[in-house]
Design goal:
By secondary structure, this protein is of the alpha+beta class. The chain is 26% helix and 42% strand. The protein has two domains: 2-77, ACT domain (Alpha-Beta Plaits); 84-153, ACT-like. Chain A, domain 2 (Alpha-Beta Plaits, 2-Layer Sandwich).
């Protein structure tokens, strides 16, 4: 089973996300990651869905989601032709003894410390999923108190964009 990233350009209306997620789950497919946000045009939003399956699964989801009345366009983001990012907020247990070591790892990963308390450091990290997982592995010995992840989002590289591509 391969990971597939589907980008869906939709009208920015109430209930759109619910209809998309419901349609995918009713067909028995699991959503591994889901992110939604308004685009450069506030009338539209971009929904990025990550699923595992074969090309048949992606084709079926694309056809069914494409039939929804508020979906403008849908496109699978091919890894070689796209860029992906995720945001993670990671709260790490930190005391006076290990604080410097944690800060050094944060610097290596080009992350940002966004909050410090007497017992924790909260880090903001953006990157692909592998980068975030690698950072978390290095933080495990210190103790990860909490993690919040946005889910994957992505765009096609270069001049192409989802508004240029239509489906039938």
């Amino acid at each position: 089973m391969e990971r597939h990233i589907i980008s869906i350009y939709v009208e920015n209306q109430a209930g759109v996300l619910s209809r998309i997620a419901g349609l995918i789950s009713r067909r028995g497919y699991n959503i591994d990651s889901l992110s939604v946000g308004v685009t450069e045009d506030p009338r539209f939003s971009r929904v990025t869905v990550v699923i595992h399956g074969d090309s048949y699964v992606v084709e079926q989801i694309s056809k069914q989601v494409g039939k929804l009345f508020d979906v403008v366009n849908i496109k699978e983001l091919i890894p070689e032709e796209s860029v992906y990012r995720e945001l993670a907020l990671i709260k790490v247990n930190a005391d006076a003894k290990n604080r410097a070591e944690i800060v050094a790892v944060v610097d290596i990963f080009r992350a940002n410390i966004i909050d410090v308390s007497a017992s924790t450091i909260t880090v903001e990290l953006t990157g692909d999923q592998a980068k975030i997982c690698a950072f978390c592995e290095l933080m495990e010995p210190f103790g990860i108190a909490e993690i919040a992840r946005t889910g994957l989002t992505g765009l096609q590289r270069g001049k192409s964009n989802i508004k240029d591509i239509s489906f039938d």
